[in-house]
Amino acid sequence: MPKPPPTPPPLTPSKPTPLPGHGSIHVRLLPPSQTTLPHLHFTYPLKLISTPSPPSATNTYQTVFQLAYGGGLVSNDQIYLRIVLEPSSKLCLLTQGSTKIFKQKVDGDMTRQVLDVRLCQGARLLLLPDPLQPFEGSVFSQVQRFWLEEDEEGGGGGMVVLDWVTEGRAARGERWELERFESRNEVYCVGSGRLLLRDALVLNSLSSTNTREESLRGRMDGLVVFATLIIRGSAFERLATFAKNKFSKEPRIGGMNFDTGDNGEAGGGDGRKRWDVLWTVSEVRGFVLVKVSGWVLEEVRGFLREVLIDGGDVVGEFGEDCFLCLR
Amino acid sequence: MGEDADNKALREEIAGLEPRLQAARAKLPSKTEIRSLEPCATVETPEMHFLLLLSDSALPLGSFAFSSGLESYTAHRPSTSTPRETTERFLKLSVDSLSHAALPFVLEAHKEPKAALTLDDIFDASTTCTVARRASVSQGRALLTVHEKSFSSSLPPSPELEAYRRALRTENVRGRASGHFPVVYGVLCNLAGISLEGTGYLFLLGHIKAILSAAVRQSLIGPYHMQALLAAEGTRAIMDTALTVAKEIAVEDAGQSVPTLDLYQGRHELLYSRVFNS
């Protein structure tokens, strides 16, 4: 029998559990447009730093940086962050640099990161972290659960979530040498507990004893990063439409390009750089998912930045300061 | 000498009687003859019978229209290896991906046919590649139709499959089922009395046959090599591994283990010319 769905974070802020790696954030809108953080708690090895939006911004939001000591998670670190966005509040959650995941020290240890976010009516979430970077021999599991109101469509809320992972310390020739990596993004309905979306990536190093099998690195076809951008809600409808249109205008594979002679621009019609990425868009149960991969991290970064800026909504809601991880 | 002559006479008598016996049998109404064959345990068990029916490529599921991403995969990876190597590599990747994503749902649906609608909803939420969704729904609905029109008279009644079929057409959009292939497959195999392992094996074999058949039609391999691959020890080994892996994965823990496949398959729609639907 399928397991019953997990429970959403409670609306009323409770006393935070003083467990290592636990944290909680409560985001509240003070009318007319002032977003505040009545609660912000964290315990080592998790650290949270908040900054309000610049005073010039007409529509204020809060930015929180999620940090880890030493820029990463060591073997058996357990991070559990719980966030509640009250009605019509806005939160931008970022990191400062990639999250390095270090090698497993003791057999059976697992580095874990859990994020639970509850979005009330009209709340808007932007989650734009730097990529996860699993090192050789690391064992890591991440679950990010998002809870939406039953009829969130009419409320003007929404979420944009980026989840991405890179190959490791490429400078040391470390390419997909991780032991196990798992990242799940799940979206639930608060009332019914119904699962709306589950996007899960599960990577396993293949037993080295079996020489007939291709290694994980070999399987990746030279790709160094896998990114998934999840877009949902009326607040980010323009972005979703933009992504869909952009994908439908992609050049056909194996066809003749009849445009090349006309404008003489290698970078496509508008004369801009064509990012060297492999990407696709899918529309699933009210979500738009953009999956991007590439052979060079910078190309994927550039591509994502371009989509988010040209899509309009994110800049409109959160300004351009939120693109730290894409610079 | 006298003995020999006796034997000869007897043989002649038998030879004479046999055609008479046959002629007499032929005169009997044909119904009686069928009844005389009815205890068909010597032919095969009903489980084996349905196992063979479900593994038949003539089963009208339209599986021939889907390459499970092979077509797009070959288009994205211009010849770095021989077509034969390409096919064999893709087969391995695709089966590995299947064992982490769809196969756990087949097994769970077999174990819990009553949970079919919940499983269908979870699978729908978990399958994020548009092209793969289309292929799954198209074959799943076709299999439901095959059950309704062809098998329902020979199998015990199934309230689960009835409810499933009704849920495909329900008015309420939120409660509407999609009819995903792995879930329908698991429920139907359970109904036909096929074991859990047998069901997993059958689903894998069907997947492999569909890929290899697509590879033949794409001229990557020839029909003899397809049969060689199907018979190969290596192919059976990857099926065995896949089944072992899938048995350990709860439907909540299913996921994509070969992220490149989602990308290649998602870009299938960008192919300038295409033979397959996936």
From TrEMBL, chain A:
Keywords: Chaperone. The keyword ATP-binding does not apply. HAMAP family: UreD. It comes from the Eukaryota. This is UreD-domain-containing protein. Residues 1-19 have a biased composition (Pro residues). Belongs to the UreD family. The keyword Glycoprotein does not apply. PANTHER family: UREASE ACCESSORY PROTEIN D (PTHR33643:SF1). GO terms for molecular function: nickel cation binding. Residues 1-22 are annotated as: Disordered.
Automatic annotation (TrEMBL), chain B:
It comes from the Eukaryota. InterPro entries: UreF, UreF_sf. The keyword Chaperone applies. Gene3D superfamilies: Urease accessory protein UreF (1.10.4190.10). Keywords: Chaperone, Nickel insertion. One of its GO terms (molecular function) is nickel cation binding. Belongs to the UreF family. PANTHER family: UREASE ACCESSORY PROTEIN F. This is Urease accessory protein UreF. It comes from Tuber magnatum (white Piedmont truffle). The lineage of its organism: Eukaryota, Fungi, Dikarya, Ascomycota, Pezizomycotina.
